[in-house]
Amino acid sequence: GIYRLNISKQIPAGYSYEHIEGSQISIKTGNSIVHFHEKMIKDPIRIHYADGSMSYNCYLIKINLISNIFDRDSLETINWTVDITQESMGKTQTRDTVQYQTLSMIQNQFEIIINDDDKGEIADLVALKVENNEIILSLYHCKYSGSTTAGRRLGDMYEVCGQAQRSIRWKHAGLKHLFKHINGRNNKWLSDGYSRFIKGGLADLEKYKNMANTMPIRLEVTIVQPGLS
Q1: Which residues pair with 140 in a beta bridge?
Q2: What are residue 33's phi and psi, to 5 degrees?
Q3: 172: pLDDT confidence band, cut at 50, 70 and 90?
Q4: What is the pLDDT of residues 133-160, one digit of tens each?
Q5: Disulfide: which of 59, 63, 186, 202 matches 52 by Cβ 3.0-4.6 Å?
Q6: Which of 123, 121, 160 is nearest to 138 (CA)?
Q7: In angstroms, what CA-CA distances link 82 with 78, 79, 98, 115?
Q8: What H or E segment, with its residue span, contains residue 42?
Q9: Which residues of 36-62 are buried (b: 16+ CB within 10 A; e: fewer)?
Q10: How far is CA 19 from CA 28, 36, 43, 117, 213, in A?
């Protein structure tokens, strides 16, 4: 069956559903049968738009997003000198990887740098410093390129963008939870003779955890994807 949604100020409710052609639709819930137009009044179909707005029946709910355009000035082009199809440097800090070159670019900028790469990670690299009386928590999400050459592959961006979006929770979780997370994962590496701390140590991270009681945290999230042209 085909129905039409009519939206008009001339209609008392502001809208109505009109059966156009084909079989009329009924919906059975338990022992009750409800006609399609009645169902739409009580439980309407919702349409979600690209800008975050939503409509149902004759109502439009607008969402004022901060911005849905990424600032071009926030993009940084990097001259990659490693194998961009290899992502993780692992416990032995393999140099010919995206993660290692990322580390080499940020190593002098932070007091603490942690390799949290692996399932359940906060980010591939977690870095902290104090600047302008704020704790800067900087998360780097690295991803390998799907090809040896850069391009416009959705697959190269999809997962890493999701990881970056989920990172917001670590600002609100606080450094006490971050400390607990890193400490537990570091202990597992220590049992194999390795440390997740590339720069600084657990005592330094504990110092930051204590400073966070009186000092604000500013979260920075960076996507590292050499596959993006």
Answers
A1: 125, 222
A2: -120, 125
A3: confident
A4: 999 999 999 999 999 999 999 999 999 9
A5: 63
A6: 123
A7: 11, 9, 7, 18
A8: helix 36-42
A9: eeebbeeebeeeeeeeeeebebbeeee
A10: 18, 9, 18, 56, 62
